[in-house]
Design a protein that fits this description.
Component of a multi-subunit COQ enzyme complex, composed of at least COQ3, COQ4, COQ5, COQ6, COQ7 and COQ9. Interacts with PYURF; the interaction is direct, stabilizes COQ5 protein and associates PYURF with COQ enzyme complex. Keywords: Membrane, Methyltransferase, Mitochondrion, Mitochondrion inner membrane, S-adenosyl-L-methionine, Transferase, Ubiquinone biosynthesis. Pathway: Cofactor biosynthesis; ubiquinone biosynthesis. InterPro entries: SAM-dependent_MTases_sf (IPR029063), UbiE/COQ5_MeTrFase (IPR004033), UbiE/COQ5_MeTrFase_CS (IPR023576). The chain is α/β, with parallel strands linked by helices and 332 residues long. It has 2 domains: 32 residues; 236 residues, Rossmann fold, CATH 3.40.50. Helix content is 46%, strand content 18%. Strands 5-4-3-6-7-9-8 form a 7-stranded mixed sheet, sandwiched between helices. Helix 9 runs antiparallel to helix 10. The longest helix is centred in the first third of the chain and has 32 residues. It starts with 36 loop residues before the first helix and ends with a strand.
C-alpha cells in the first residue's frame, strides 16, 4: 500500500470536478379604573405578584434554555451555538501543520491506524460512492482511493467509476487536502476509474448536498469528537448510507491498563500542547484537542450511541491498548 503524508470551496454545493481542479458556507397594558382606592391597592398587589411570577417564570425559562443549550469545548462549558465557531477556529489555525503534528503527536502511529482502518476493516467495491467526513487533508480518502484503484486495475474492463467524496466543515483543511492531491498527481487516477470530489459541509447536516441512501460507505477519522451533537452526526451517517452500507469511525478512546493511562495522560497534557506551541505556534488549540479526547465517550458508550442511531452489527476494536478505537456498523 502506498504511504501518504499525514493528513474549498466557496459554497455548500457539491463540487464535482476533476481531482486537481475542484474549487472550492430571534398587551398592550390594559389599565382598568377601579371603584375604590382599596380595591385598586388589591389589584395593584395582584398585578405586582403576577408580574413577579411572570418574571420568575421567564427567568427560569431562560436559565433552562441556557442549560439545555450548553455543551463542552474541551473542559470548558460553552453555549452550543459557540462551539462550532470555536472548533472552526482551532482547525483554521492548525490546518497547514495538521499532518505534521499528527506525525509528531502519535509517533506516526496514526498512519498505521488508518492503514488498518482501510483494507483490514473496510473494503470498498468498484463502482461505489464513498464519503469521508471531517476528512479535510485527505489522509483517509486517499487510502480509499488507492484501494479502489487497485480494484480497478484488477478489473480494467469494468466500465465503472468509483467516487470518493471528502467532506469537511473547514475550508482551510479542505484546501490543504486539495493541494496534496495535486502534488501527488491523484488526478491521474481518474483514468483508472477513481474520481475524488471535495465538499464543504457540516457532519450534522449534509442534506443539501448528500441525498438519502446514496452512499455505499461512510468513514470519519478523528473528527466526530469535535462535532457539537455527536448523535446527530451518527444519525446523518445512517441517513446518507444505502441499505447494506458500512459506517466506520476511528477515534481516540479509553486507554487500558491504568498504568498506561497514567503515562498517556501525562504525555497528552504535558507534551502535546508544548509540541503545538513549538511547531505550530499554537498551544491552546492542542490543549483543546487533548481535552476533547478525554471528553469523548468510552468504547461501550459510543457503541450504544451508534446502535441508537439505527445501525446493526455494531462492534469495535481497540487499537494500541485503547489509545484509539475503531467502531463499525451496518445500515440494514
Amino acid at each position: 500500500m502506498l504511504r501518504f503524508p499525514v493528513r474549498f470551496l466557496r459554497s455548500h454545493k457539491l463540487l464535482s470536478t476533476r481531482l486537481c481542479y475542484s474549487q472550492h458556507s430571534e398587551a398592550s397594558d390594559v389599565f382598568k379604573k377601579y371603584p375604590s382606592a382599596s380595591s385598586f391597592a388589591n389589584v395593584t398587589s395582584d398585578a405586582n405578584n403576577s408580574q413577579q411570577t411572570q418574571q420568575t417564570t421567564e427567568s427560569n425559562t431562560k436559565d433552562s434554555n441556557n442549560f439545555q443549550s450548553e455543551t463542552h469545548f474541551g473542559y470548558k462549558t460553552v453555549p452550543e451555538h459557540e462551539k462550532q465557531k470555536m472548533v472552526h477556529e482551532v482547525f483554521r489555525n492548525v490546518a497547514d501543520k495538521y499532518d505534521l503534528m499528527n506525525d509528531l503527536m502519535s509517533g506516526t502511529m496514526h498512519r498505521i491506524w488508518k492503514d488498518q482502518m482501510i483494507g483490514d476493516h473496510y473494503r470498498p467495491q468498484i463502482g461505489g460512492t464513498y464519503l469521508d467526513v471531517a476528512g479535510g487533508t485527505g489522509d483517509v480518502a486517499f487510502r480509499i482511493a488507492e484501494y479502489l484503484k487497485r480494484q480497478h486495475l484488477n478489473a480494467p474492463n469494468s466500465g465503472l467509476t468509483s467516487r470518493v467524496i471528502v467532506s469537511d466543515i473547514n475550508a482551510n483543511m479542505l484546501e490543504v487536502g486539495r493541494q496534496k492531491s495535486i502534488e501527488l498527481n491523484l488526478h491521474k487516477w481518474e483514468h483508472h476509474g477513481v474520481k475524488l470530489d471535495w465538499l464543504e459541509g457540516n457532519a450534522e447536516d449534509l442534506s443539501e448536498t448528500i441525498p438519502d441512501r446514496s452512499i455505499d460507505g461512510y468513514t470519519i477519522a478523528f473528527g466526530i469528537r469535535n462535532v457539537t451533537h455527536i448523535d446527530k452526526a451518527i444519525k446523518e451517517a445512517h441517513r446518507v448510507l444505502k441499505p447494506g452500507g458500512q459506517f466506520l469511525c476511528l477515534e481516540f478512546s479509553q486507554v487500558d491498563p491504568i498504568a498506561l493511562r497514567q503515562f498517556y495522560d501525562w504525555y497528552s497534557f504535558n507534551i502535546i500542547p508544548k509540541i503545538g506551541q513549538v511547531v505550530a505556534n499554537d498551544h491552546d488549540s492542542y490543549q483543546y484537542l487533548v481535552e476533547s479526547i478525554r471528553q469523548f465517550p468510552p468504547q461501550e458508550r459510543f457503541k450504544q450511541m451508534i446502535q441508537d442511531a439505527g445501525f446493526k452489527n455494531v462492534r469495535y476494536t481497540s487499537l494500541t491498548f485503547g489509545v484509539v478505537a475503531l467502531h463499525s456498523g451496518i445500515k440494514l
